[in-house]
Design brief:
The chain is mainly beta and about 170 residues long. It has a domain of about 120 residues. It is about 15% helix and about 35% strand. It contains four helices and eight strands. The strands form two sheets. Strands 2, 3, 4, 5, 6 and 7 form a six-stranded mixed β-sheet that branches. The protein starts with a strand and ends with a helix. It binds zinc ion (2 copies).
């Protein structure tokens, strides 16, 4: 799994209101939870508040999502606003998940970025508007031509508004 780790101890020790910008320019990697990115780019501004670092910025990335019909990977570029707060010292808020800066002054962005990416990932994408999917008998990718099986077209596919699902 890719470690997105940034040293921020200078900001942790700075007065309230101090700022710092992290420039992200990361290559391909695995963020866990089946989130594979081709790249991660953007800038995240960190502001020191009294007990937290407040992070905000815009991140661009590209992931691969299996086509809902034929399972071929579909390239899906996205851009999203990143906002997160990182506590400066361990706190225990029952029932609340939060991120914290490590005691030696590191900020880990892997999990919060993964969450933002998952929130921005559509549940269903198609590789092309009229993807023919896989043969239910032999698994052949019908976009590459017919197989030997004799199939009736699946009636569910004819009623789905495929143009709207394709993004
Ligand atoms: Zn497809
Ligand atoms: Zn077949």
């Amino acid at each position: 799994m890719k470690m997105l780790r940034y040293q921020v101890s200078g900001l942790v020790g700075a007065p309230i209101g101090s700022r710092m910008v992290l420039s992200l320019d990361e290559g391909p990697g695995d963020l866990g939870d089946q989130v594979q990115v081709d790249y991660l780019k953007g800038e995240i501004e960190l502001v020191r508040s009294d007990c937290r670092l407040l992070a905000s910025g815009v991140i661009s990335t590209q992931i691969r999502i299996p086509c809902a019909r034929c399972l071929e990977p579909v390239l899906f570029p996205m851009s999203f606003e990143f906002e997160e707060a990182f506590h400066l010292s361990p706190v225990d808020i029952p029932g609340e998940a939060f991120y914290a800066v490590t005691h030696d002054g590191y900020l880990f962005l892997t999990a919060p970025l993964r969450e933002h990416i998952l929130l921005n990932t559509p549940l269903r994408v198609l590789c092309r508007p009229g993807c023919r999917g896989l043969c239910p008998e032999c698994g052949h990718n019908l976009n590459e031509g017919k197989c030997e099986c004799i199939n009736e077209p699946d009636p569910r596919w004819t009623v789905l508004p495929s143009a709207q699902l394709f993004k």
